[in-house]
């Protein structure tokens, strides 16, 4: 536990990962964090992200600042966005798990298969599948051009076919999880989910800061979500950060 708390105090300085015109802003935000001005640092990091800059270091620092400023939902949202870029970052995963444990009440979590397929980025999954495919294609071509080698290549060809099918399936699951499994993270003290996408609708349930909810539908500035208990309601976009699947 102590090691995780120590991790949360760290700020990554990686200006080279950011565009030149925002490096100074990134350094200024880091300085605010180092001075203990966490609310100001959170605002500074958010401004950089809003301008279009994005990197694992920027999102990691933004998550750290938000947590230290007492904004669990904003921290989780930043960490989860960083996780899409660097899914195997040990410190990032530790920070995300630590902050999630501070969220009161039950909340949704990724399933085991979502965690498993999420160990690769979508680009890495596509490259891996492409590599297996071309290896399979090359082996099949050699067997056609050199029939005498076919018996020797039978086992390795079967392995290449199996790996291509397996990695293709994982890639399909990754894409489905990324584009069809959006999540909403509550970023305020609490959010009231309503029976319809308007302020006057009846309250269905209340979600606390940091709660993660699966998005079912969207309408104007509202998102329909489902919580851990299976209750469905509509939340204003002002109350949440909507993220792609893990």
What do you see in this structure?
By secondary structure, the protein is of the alpha+beta class. It is built from nine helices and seven strands. The strands form two sheets. Strands 6-5-4-1-7 form a five-stranded antiparallel sheet. A two-stranded antiparallel sheet has the order 2-3. A hairpin with a 5-residue loop joins strand 5 and strand 6. Helix 1 crosses helix 6, helix 4 runs antiparallel to helix 5 and helix 8 runs antiparallel to helix 9. It is globular, with a radius of gyration of 22 Å. 32% of the residues are buried. The N terminus is likely disordered.
Give the strand order, joined by hyphens, for the main sheet. 6-5-4-1-7
- Count of helical stretches: 9
Largest sheet: 5 strands, antiparallel
Task: Look at the structure and give the mean pLDDT.
Answer: 86
């Amino acid at each position: 536990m102590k090691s995780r708390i120590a991790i949360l105090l760290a700020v990554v300085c990686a200006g080279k990962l950011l565009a030149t015109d925002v490096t100074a802003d990134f350094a200024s935000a880091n300085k605010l964090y180092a001075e203990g001005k966490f609310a100001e640092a959170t605002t500074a990091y958010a401004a950089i992200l809003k301008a279009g800059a994005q990197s694992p270091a920027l999102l990691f620092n933004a998550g750290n600042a938000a947590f230290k400023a007492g904004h669990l939902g904003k921290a989780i949202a930043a960490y989860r966005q960083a996780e899409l870029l660097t899914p195997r970052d040990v410190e990032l995963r530790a920070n995300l798990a630590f902050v999630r444990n501070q969220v009161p009440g039950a909340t949704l979590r990724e399933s085991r298969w979502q965690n498993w397929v999420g160990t690769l980025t979508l680009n890495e999954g596509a490259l891996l599948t492409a590599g297996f495919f071309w290896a399979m294609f090359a082996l099949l071509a050699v067997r056609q051009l050199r029939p005498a080698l076919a018996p020797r290549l039978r086992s390795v060809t079967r392995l290449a076919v199996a790996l291509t099918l397996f990695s293709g399936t994982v890639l399909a699951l990754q894409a489905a999880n990324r584009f069809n499994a959006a999540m909403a993270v509550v970023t305020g003290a609490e959010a009231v989910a309503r029976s319809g996408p308007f302020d006057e609708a009846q309250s269905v349930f209340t979600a606390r800061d940091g709660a993660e909810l699966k998005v079912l539908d969207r309408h104007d500035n509202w998102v329909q979500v489902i919580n851990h208990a299976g209750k469905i309601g509509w939340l204003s976009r002002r109350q949440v950060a909507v993220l792609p699947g893990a």
